[in-house]
Design brief:
The complex is a heterotetramer, with one copy of chain A (506 residues), one copy of chain B (283 residues) and two copies of chain C (319 residues).
Chain A lengths: L7 E10 L2 E11 L4 E5 L6 H8 L7 E6 L2 E3 L4 H6 L2 E4 L11 H5 L7 E2 L3 E2 L1 H14 L16 H12 L6 E5 L7 H16 L3 E5 L3 H7 L2 E6 L2 E7 L5 H9 L18 E10 L2 E9 L3 E5 L6 H8 L5 E8 L2 E2 L5 H6 L2 E4 L3 H5 L6 H6 L7 E2 L3 E2 L1 H14 L16 H13 L5 E5 L7 H16 L3 E5 L3 H7 L2 E6 L2 E7 L5 H8 L9
Parallel strand pairs in A: 3-10, 3-11, 6-9, 9-10, 15-22, 15-23, 18-21, 21-22
Antiparallel strand pairs in A: 1-2, 1-4, 4-5, 7-8, 11-12, 13-14, 13-16, 16-17, 19-20, 23-24
Helix pairs in contact in A: 4-5
Chain B lengths: L2 E6 L5 H17 L2 E6 L4 H14 L3 E4 L7 H9 L4 E4 L10 E3 L2 H15 L3 E7 L5 H15 L3 E8 L8 H14 L8 E4 L2 H13 L8 E3 L5 H8 L4 E6 L2 H16 L8 E3 L3 E3 L7
Chain C lengths: L1 H22 L7 H10 L1 H15 L7 H17 L4 H26 L3 H20 L11 H8 L1 E7 L2 E6 H19 L1 H11 L1 H6 L4 H27 L10 H13 L9 H20 L4 H22 L4
Helix pairs in contact in C: 1-13, 1-14, 3-8, 3-9, 3-11, 3-12, 3-13, 4-5, 4-6, 4-11, 5-6, 5-11, 7-11, 8-9, 9-11, 12-13
The chains are: A alpha/beta (506), B alpha/beta (283), C mainly alpha (319).
The complex binds adenosine-5'-triphosphate (ATP) (2 copies) and magnesium ion (MG) (2 copies).
The site of one magnesium ion has 6 residues of chain A, from helix 1.
Chain lengths: 506, 283, 319, 319
């Protein structure tokens, strides 16, 4: 194969935030007609590099060329005109506008009489963009905010695919997608490759990357340390390249079997969007919750957490009646929560890391429950952060300055900081690199070894199978079955979620 | 029972209270149903409220706002045959009559008092307010009087912020002026177009420890706080009492006469005023 | 449930209307009275419509009242100096547009918080109005009769129960302004982009919307509407003084906010703003007709707004 | 660069101070004048300190001015009725606290937007002040001398360049209030929680913060501070009228917002609010001493604020 002019070449890209380097001479070369993975651990500089290409962040130095011609990208509009399309890591949608309007955001709407919006045409074109991903369950006229996270991501992808471009850049597009939805995205990405355009792809799901991408560039500490065809490298070597050490196993072994005491039980628990549901959780057990999006997983968690008013049924915690009136009461009882959307629900972005971590534990992290002790708080936060390899300047750094995966670690740290009896986790490892995932799983196992119970909602099926003891399947607002995770295959789980029978039902 | 309405944007000003109370007293004697409407400074709202009153078909309307600004409302009342009276408002063909004190005369009284007291020479600080016509005319007269003395210099012509009543801001302004003119005798007098700035200036002078310099302060209106200050014998020496109650009562009398079928010919009805000094402040 | 949540505030307002109609059957629910209300609220309507444009982006403009006063003063001074009415009106509108553009530049180009920027320009415009007018009220013969007559005129609608009614000119202007703003916000790409900015400024910026330019334009339009409101006010009172618009600012913001309690996601909508303005106008109109003492009226207006809006909010218990 | 960004506004303000000191070397930078400024701004300081508490949560309180007026009226009426000063002051403070709690209940329990809720209560409190006072100014012999004397008194500080200076009582109160608010916001879990709520209400709720209760408390404190400011005002003018606090509201919000331009992420901070209040006070004091015409002074105040804040903002390039 002749070596053609690269579609995109970015060399000597440097960027420092307040003197601290995020990129130190990184380079990236993407050829036409390839799906190129951009790899690296949390905080390696992937998103920063992408934002520079998108004209969102100004680099300190950069030599960027498109089709061999040097360019400077000084605005989002410039990037657009150069034929680059982006899906950024954080959710950038307008929930109050319709799906079609979100798809067309930033572009000129179809018009009548040269000024008035042609709504019919707008919705038609939006529908076409959705069709391209094979999406038929989303109405372009719907409000985007009414959709689940996965569907919102599908809309964002449709928006990027609205017209033809040279390079599509996607920063963790599958973090919120189900396996099925991911497959549809991959089909389109392969179509794009076939048409001669390229894709720059970021994901911490390595299996996905190995299966989909042709080439990879690995960033570590803001430098490109290797680049090459994925066909020539094994999974384990890739991990070692990224995080600089070997990870033997994806999931830590359970230290102890679940005990026979019950930590938590729900009896006929119901709330808005949740039909009467009963289950119990043993001390030291991790119970996974699987199901299609919108099956009531979120409602179940929020009901247990005291955030949704329970309309019927009872709960018990450590065999005592448990009926929290609010999340405040839940935390008091020793229940901790990692919410689904870290930026909207989990973090106070413009506050320091340590303040975010101690927010739910201020009673204990203060003198007499009243007087702040910032020094102690910082030390406490620094210790916790070290446990999960939090990459930050220090505990006083504002969360908004952290990379996506590191923000997620802060949310997790807050949840485990108070030695909870019951951990409620929604997508706790979203955007977290393989190494840090292992750390998080280890912490979960540490908690269970001390007799805590864990309820884990995740769209990452290998994760569910790997870390859970049992998995509850939710459908239409209630738990339909609970199966043992051991020996379960991904396909079995998918079938269960769709309500298709397999021989596996326990 | 006759329905009479008073519409004013200036209810918060002390004078207005007295008009209204005296008016009410006469109204009670006549057993009228009085509706007092304050539009809190909004002149267009005066028109709106007059329109509402016309819809409601009241028997008489009293305003205390410049009639040329509410012509639309006055016209609506006239079309409906409802008589409108001015209570210290201004003369206008659409009004039956306007009952008021003579503003030119009041300002002449205090400004000549000042000029005489300082023997026609020295620096004078003026507190004025141009946005309100009846007060604005006072400034005009005082300007003329001081301008007629070659040795009187107007040091500053201050318009205080009146949104809080005028005392506090006038005081802050006077404090600054005193700081800028630290020499004893560098300020001979403070002439204020109404009492609140005079009171603010008095506080500033006393607080600065300069009450011994003999700075002469005058106000206009002679409200209770001013009378007390004058009676105390300090720098605040004189003010002019408008007979607010007299204006209110005279307006009510005019309304009564018209309701009784009489015709009123003079477009302005003057009610006498009086210079207030230490001698008669407590009367 | 969903019904109450969405329409709670509206129901509260309808209850107020029903109350007045029952208490004042002969005068409140008449065509004449309603035409009065549209005229009485027309200035606020125009200013609030302009305010809606910036509030859609999540911004404020505190300077509209001063801008209205300034525009009125400028027009009055020009007319007093013998300029034709059309020239005076055009220059006054241009002053409003420029003032708004200045606000927009401070907010979007310099990057000052809208609250501070427009508070500062509120002071500046008001000071300018005092400076150019010398603090005086310009009235009487200085103002051409035609100018004052405009606000008094209207299009005759014929007889209604024996009374001749006409659609006031001021109301017509208000309706036109509402129509233009409605088209702008709901039917053009420009308006939809403002909504995108209000919903998520970051997302709007990332998707290539020229947020700085649009913000500048939006503030300019608000300034223009404020000037129009100020001219209407000046025409209605056939005079101009440097403070006469000052009451418009808080009421305009209040009307837009009242409107937001009726929209799906709490975003400002022009038609909801219209309802908000009318509610404020109806409360004044109805309580005056009921001869409620003005002080007690103040307390009642506040309380009624709380009850009406509160009814809507209580319905929205999510948890 | 980072320096300019963070301290740009502060540098602008220092430039203003230097300017006045150069123009008025004999009178502006004197202890006497500065003590005057602290006294003149003391009421605004107290009200703005209270406003900072709710603005930390991202809320507003538009009713502080009316609450101040109402508290002043209540105290004056009680004193006029022969009650001892301490009783009158306590009851007036209680009225402020209750009014604030009412605001808090509307916002947090009923769920009305702070802007609408406090706009409504602003109208209500103001109406109440008129109703209880009958619209009259209460002054003169109705007010005990001791009450008015308090504002005139102070702690002697000795001689300063031949002039006897003293620290005014009102300034002392302002300093105490600032200290209390500083401790509350910066040193206690209560303040930490308010800041978290201001940063992300949802995250704060899900982190176990009793957001409703805290909001209620915060609004109550703001009401209390407003009442204190109103009492100080009444003492300073030795009288009370139902509108005298109305200028405080916008200025208090302006001071807090000016302060936010000096903090890291634009969050309100009490010490920054103090700077904001002093800037407003210094501009008034300095320009008056320069005998700048009061109308032109208005324009200058606005322009200087824009320049000072703009200097800070321009340093903050977004990308
Ligand atoms: N606004 C900012 N201010 C200061 N530092 C920042 C800022 N944004 C990013 N950084 C730092 O730059 C480094 C690179 O971050 P980046 O978001 O590019 O990482 P990433 O590779 O995308 O990580 P992840 O996989 O977690 O998303 C991190 O150390 C981060 O803390
Ligand atoms: N980052 C982007 N993402 C998506 N579309 C973009 C982006 N930047 C620009 N566009 C689209 O590229 C085209 C050219 O942009 P530009 O805004 O200059 O057009 P315009 O003529 O100014 O349109 P308008 O008058 O509607 O603003 C438009 O269709 C615009 O919507
Ligand atoms: Mg990233
Ligand atoms: Mg464009």
């Amino acid at each position: 194969m002749a070596s053609p002019v690269p579609l995109l070449s970015a060399t000597s890209v440097t960027k420092a935030y307040a003197g601290i380097p995020a990129l130190s001479g990184a380079s990236l070369v993407v050829a036409p007609g390839e799906i190129h993975a951009l790899m690296g651990e949390n905080g390696a500089g992937k998103s920063t590099l992408i934002k520079i290409l998108a004209g969102v962040v100004a680099p300190d130095t950069a030599h960027i060329a498109i089709d061999g011609a040097p360019v400077t990208i000084e605005s989002t509009k410039a990037a657009y005109r150069l034929g680059l399309r982006f899906i950024h890591q954080e959710f950038n949608v307008v929930p109050t506008l319709s799906v079609a309007e979100n798809i067309f955001m930033g572009r000129r709407y179809p018009r009548r009489a040269s000024i008035l919006v042609d709504w019919v045409e707008l919705n038609r074109q939006a529908q076409r963009a959705l069709d391209r991903l094979g999406i038929d369950h989303i109405d372009p006229r719907q409000n985007l905010g009414e959709l689940g996270l996965g569907d919102q991501m599908l809309v964002r992808i449709s928006a990027a695919l609205l017209d033809d471009a040279k390079l599509y850049v996607m920063d963790e597009p599958t973090a919120a997608l189900t396996a099925d939805e991911s497959q549809r995205l991959f089909r389109v990405l392969r179509e794009i490759r076939a048409s001669g355009s390229s894709v720059l792809y970021v994901s911490h799901r390595l299996d996905e990357v190995m299966a989909l991408c042709d080439k990879a560039t690995v960033l570590r500490d803001g430098r490109s340390i290797d680049s090459g065809a994925l066909a020539n490298i094994t999974h384990d070597d890739l991990v070692a390249l990224m995080i600089g050490r070997k990870v033997e196993e994806a999931y830590p072994k359970a230290v102890a079997e679940p005990r026979d005491t019950t930590v938590f039980a729900a009896t006929n628990l119901a709330t808005l969007g949740l039909k009467p549901t009963s289950f119990s959780l043993r001390a030291g057990e991790v119970l996974g919750i699987a199901g299609l999006s919108g099956s009531g997983q979120g409602e179940l968690i929020r009901a247990i957490f005291g955030d949704f008013r329970v309309t019927s049924g009872t709960m018990s915690l450590d065999n005592a009646p448990y009926a929290p009136a609010s999340p405040a009461a839940a935390w008091q009882s020793g229940v901790a929560y990692v919410p689904r959307e870290r930026r909207a629900e989990g973090l106070v972005m413009r506050r320091p890391i340590y303040q975010n971590i101690t927010l739910a534990h201020l009673k204990r992290q203060s003198r007499a429950g009243t007087w702040l002790t910032p020094g102690r708080e910082k030390r406490f936060a620094a210790d916790l952060g070290a446990n999960m390899r939090l990459k930050a300047v220090g505990p006083a750094q504002d969360v908004i300055e952290l990379s996506g995966g590191n923000q997620q670690k802060v949310v997790f740290a807050k949840a485990v900081a108070g030695d909870p009896r019951l951990l409620l986790l929604e997508e706790p490892t979203r955007g977290v690199d393989v190494g840090a995932k292992f750390d998080i799983y280890s912490i979960i196992r540490e908690r269970t070894a001390k007799g805590a119970g864990v309820i884990l909602v995740s769209s990452d099926l290998p994760e569910l199978i790997g870390i859970c003891d049992r998995i509850a399947i939710m459908r239409d607002g209630t738990i339909t079955t609970i199966v043992d995770a051991a020996g379960l295959g991904e396909d079995d789980l998918v079938n269960l979620c769709y309500g298709r029978t397999t021989g596996m039902v326990a | 029972q006759a329905k009479v309405a008073i519409v004013t944007p200036y209810m918060a000003q002390p004078g207005t209270q007295f008009y209204v109370e005296a008016f009410q007293a006469v109204a009670d004697e006549n057993d009228w149903d009085v509706n007092v409407i304050d539009t809190a400074g909004d002149v267009a709202a005066v028109i709106s409220r007059i329109e509402d009153l016309v819809v409601q078909n009241v028997d008489a309307i009293v305003i205390n706002v410049d009639p040329t600004q509410v012509t639309a409302g006055l016209q609506a009342a006239k079309d409906a045959g409802i008589p409108v009276f001015g209570m210290d408002a201004g003369a206008d063909p659409l009004l039956v009559t306007n009952v008021t004190s003579n503003g030119y005369a009041m300002a002449a009284e205090t400004s000549t008092y000042v000029a005489d007291r300082i023997k026609g020479e020295g620096n004078v600080v003026m507190f004025v307010f141009e946005a309100f016509p009846p007060v604005q005319v006072r400034g005009v007269v005082a300007d003329a009087v001081f301008g007629n003395y070659p040795d009187i210099k107007v040091l500053d012509r201050v318009t205080p912020d009146v949104s809080d009543g005028g005392i506090a801001d006038s005081r802050a302004k006077m404090e600054a002026i005193l700081s800028a003119n630290p020499e004893p005798g560098s300020i001979k007098a403070v002439w204020a177009a109404w009492d609140q700035p005079a009171l603010g200036a008095l506080q500033a002078i006393e607080d600065a420890g300069r009450s011994g310099e003999g700075i002469v302060i005058t106000g206009i209106d002679a409200n209770p706080q001013a009378r007390e200050a004058i009676a105390a014998g300090g720098n605040f020496e004189a003010s002019v009492a408008q007979d607010f109650s007299g204006i209110g009562a005279a307006t009510a009398d005019a309304v009564a006469r018209v309701l009784a079928g009489e015709e009123i010919l003079q477009s302005v009805t003057y009610v006498p005023t009086k210079l207030i000094t230490k001698a008669n402040a407590t009367e | 449930m969903v019904f109450i949540r969405r329409y709670g505030t509206l129901i509260g307002f309808v209850a107020i209307l029903v109350f007045f109609s029952v208490m004042l059957p002969a005068t409140f629910p008449t065509a004449r009275n309603w035409l009065n209300i549209t005229q009485q609220t027309s200035m606020l309507m125009v200013v609030a419509a302009g305010m809606t444009v910036v509030m859609v982006m999540g911004d404020f403009d505190l300077s509209v009242g001063s801008a209205a006063s300034l525009a009125g003063i400028v027009a009055a001074l020009m007319m007093a100096a013998g300029q034709p009415i059309w020239a005076a009106v055009s220059i006054a509108l241009a002053v409003g547009l420029l003032g708004g553009a200045f606000n927009g530049a401070m907010v979007s180009l310099v990057g000052i918080l809208p609250f501070i920027a427009t508070l500062a320009t509120m002071t500046m415009f008001s000071g300018l109005a005092f400076v150019v007018s010398g603090g005086k009220t310009i009235s009487g013969r200085a103002i051409p009769e035609d100018f004052g007559n405009f606000a008094r005129g209207g299009i005759p609608l014929g007889d209604w129960g024996g009374v001749a009614v006409s659609l006031p000119n001021l109301s017509i202007i208000a309706i036109l302004v509402i129509l233009v703003v409605w088209i702008l916000l709901e039917q053009t790409t420009f308006g939809r982009r403002l909504y995108a900015m209000g919903g998520n400024m970051e997302a709007a910026h990332l998707s290539g919307i020229a947020v700085k330019r649009l913000r500048l334009i939006a503030f300019s339009l608000t300034g223009l509407a404020a000037a129009a409101g100020g001219l209407m006010y000046a025409s209605r009172v056939a005079s101009a003084n440097p403070v006469q618009g000052s009451g418009l600012m808080l009421n305009a913001i209040a009307a837009v906010f009242l409107g937001t309690t009726m929209s799906r996601h709490g975003e400002p909508r022009i038609l909801a703003t219209v309802v908000g303005v009318i509610v404020l106008g109806v409360l004044d109109n109805g309580l005056t007709q009921l001869s409620v003492d003005s002080y007690i009226r103040q307390v009642l207006v506040g309380a009624l707004i709380l009850v009406a809006v509160g009814a809507g909010s209580l319905g929205q218990k999510r948890r």
